[in-house]
Hints:
- Mean pLDDT is about 85; it is low at about 5-30.
- The protein has 3 helices and 9 strands.
- The strands form 2 sheets. Strands 3-9-8-5-6 form a 5-stranded mixed beta sheet, with no helix packed on it. It has a 4-stranded mixed beta sheet with strand order 1-2-4-7, with no helix packed on it.
- The protein has helices at about 1-25, 80-85, 95-105, and strands spanning about 35, 45-50, 60, 65-75, 90, 120-125, 130-140, 145-150, 160-165.
- By secondary structure, it is of the alpha+beta class.
- It starts with a helix and ends with a strand.
- The longest helix is centred in the first third of the chain and has 23 residues, at about 1-25.
- Strand 1 (about 35) and strand 2 (about 45-50) form a beta hairpin.
- It is about 25% helix and about 30% strand.
- The structure holds zinc ion.
- The site of zinc ion (ZN) has 7 residues, from loops.
- Zinc ion binds near residues 49, 84, 85, 150 and 155.
Amino acid sequence: MRISYFLSLSALALGAIALAACGSGNNGTTAHDHDTIGADGVRSITITGNDAMQFNLNEIRGEPGERVRLTLRHIGRMTKQNMGHNWVLLQSMDASALNSLGMEAAANAPDYLPRDMSVVIAHTRMLGGGESDTIEFNLPEEPGQYPFVCTFPGHFALMRGNVIVE
Ligand code: ZN
């Protein structure tokens, strides 16, 4: 009797710890902590890029076909010519295709977008420090993993993540 009481208390305590760990969002990598729902019901997501060539998110989750309002903010101080950031959402592709596309886009000044825009689902403009750009688009209907990158030369290796449609 005492033992089973103790066990169930332990289970409750463990559950509470698991919930607390989940709710704290201390990994800082998914979009959930950065979302707001607008008056029009559209979810807004803010992603930042900094002077250290980093996005603050590497994963954004959403539902098939969901309307999304995404703001990219460049929170650094460097110019667009030296530390430009954009946010480019791409069709699903494997690592080597993504690599090729990143290289090709990097050679395509001044916007550094791929020549074949059919692989681009949505993109912001290229920003310098202090600038921001907001775009609205629908997530793909097909569940899956869609890579996003900054296509400024040399950035896609570090500035990348995935939109997970589920
Ligand atoms: Zn960049």
